Amino acid sequence: MTKILLIDDDVKLGELLTAYFDRFELDLTVATDPENGLKVLDNLTPDLVILDVMLPGQDGFDVCRTIRKSSSVPIIMLTARGEVTDRIVGLEIGADDYMPKPFEPRELVARIQNVLRRSGDAPASTTEIKFDDLEINLERRVVNLAGSQLELTTMEYQLLILFAQNPGKNFTRDEILNELRGIDAQLFSRSVDILVSRLRQKLGDTGKDQRFVKTVWGTGYVFVGGDSA
User: Fold this and answer.
1) pTM value > 0.85
2) Which residue range is the domain that position 139 belongs to?
3) Residue 228 maps to a domain
4) Residue 184's pLDDT band (boundaries 50, 70, 90)?
5) CA max distance for the chain
6) For residues 203 and 98, what is the distance between their CA atoms, to the nearest angstrom?
7) How many domains, in total, are found in the chain?
8) Who's near 70: CB < 8 A, 6+ residues apart?
9) Among 136, 161, 163, which residue's Cα sits nearest to residue 150?
10) Over the Cα atoms of the chain, what is R_g?
11) CATH classification at residue 216
């Protein structure tokens, strides 16, 4: 069964989701505080984490930052506030999806399945893509740059695959949103810019002369990583 970790201090929500998830072969483990949640994360190695923003002791944003220091596990964040600012912050620190409370359990299951599907996507036609010292192994879902493995979130990885499979193509922000299908549509181009910025940082692509992703001013982005080997 797929292992899901819920970090949320709402005990009733945990009980409800535990029973509901079982119908979809999702094995839910619940932690009601951040400290215990991080310990469970290390021991459980879940396939996905559901993380509430409003937690005792420290908020979900801090917990997400802590997780991202050592893990690229997919994260769906929950918030009772539902503010656009919260969603932007969630994306900036590495969340893969964002869902406001209250919500329908079936929608949450659909989002879980979508995020997990994205994280496991790999075209059957090829198993490796190379651009200079950037190597992407699609079968193993591993990205190496100059011999060092990069820790990418699900969304960062999917964006890199989209770019790498279409070198030289000028992608508008709307096209990227439509292709990835995981960024909240209400964020529009701002969410794409945040995601591209995160990917660039991990590629070391932050100078004026970007090696891999160039900005097409007023339009979007284009991948210019060289000729595929």
Assistant:
1) no
2) 128-223
3) no
4) low
5) 54
6) 25
7) 2
8) none
9) 136
10) 18
11) 1.10.10.10
